[in-house]
Amino acid sequence: MSKNALLTAILIQALLLSVLPLPKARATEITGLTINVKGDDVYVSARLALDDSLMKDLRAGIEKKLIFYVDLFRHWSSWPDEFILGSKIERDVGCDNLKGEYMIISRENGWAEKTRFASCNDLITNALILKNIRLSGLKGLTKGRYYVRVTAESKLRNLPPLLGQMFFFIKDKEFSVHADSVTVNLGSRP
């Protein structure tokens, strides 16, 4: 192959790569994070978008433990941000296609709730949505700029804490993602 033919082939490939759109890889992320302030309470809504391999695992019947953290932080300009309060929501998600059982076991603030669904798609839709999670107890909050951070993670296996520290190189989370809301002014006292 001559030098001119090789340069022409490289030029054509570069031109095609720049013109044709690349396929978009979809990673696990938190979308649609909104906060509503009503009185002394903050209500948070968000949605977890899983990547294709995790969705395939769920539909194949592999159970997942999803953990959501909804935390309120005070923003400081020259200091690290200050944690104010938070809520932890655990969801055990399982699609058993053989038995036709599609169930979420949700735990929050010491309460456990078991919910059954008609199909795996309904279960996945409901398991990945956080709707109006209430952060309360904000009365007497110091006036300032605040934001909400939503973190979602999935644990791979339950290692005893000592083994987890000894074998620190073993991955214990399937994924861990977070998203921050816009900054809002909260608080009544100076």
Summarize the structure.
By secondary structure, the chain is α+β, with helices and mostly antiparallel strands. The chain contains 4 helices and 10 strands, in the order H-E-E-H-E-E-E-E-H-E-E-H-E-E. Strand 5 and strand 6 form a beta hairpin.
Q: How is this structure best described in words?
A:
The structure is a single chain. Helix content is 21%, strand content 47%. The chain has 190 residues and is of the alpha+beta class. Strands 3, 4, 5, 6, 8, 9 and 10 form a seven-stranded antiparallel beta sheet that branches. Strands 1-2-7 form a three-stranded antiparallel beta sheet. A hairpin with a 2-residue loop joins strand 1 (29-38) and strand 2 (41-49). The radius of gyration is 23 Å and the shape is extended. The mean pLDDT is 83.
Keywords:
190 residues; three-stranded antiparallel sheet; single chain; 21% helix; extended; seven-stranded antiparallel sheet; 4 helices; alpha+beta
The DSSP helix count reads: 4
What is the N-to-C order of secondary-structure elements (H for helix, E for strand)? HEEHEEEEHEEHEE
User: What portion of the residues fall into strands of 2 or more residues?
Assistant: over 45%
Which spans of ≥5 residues are poorly predicted at pLDDT below 50? none
Global shape: extended
Gap from first CA to last CA: 77 Å
What profile does the largest beta sheet have? 7 strands, antiparallel
Strand runs, count: 10
Multimeric state of these chains? single chain
Amount of helix: 10-25%
Task: Decide which structural class fits the backbone.
Answer: alpha+beta
Radius of gyration: 23 Å
Mean pLDDT, as a whole number? 83
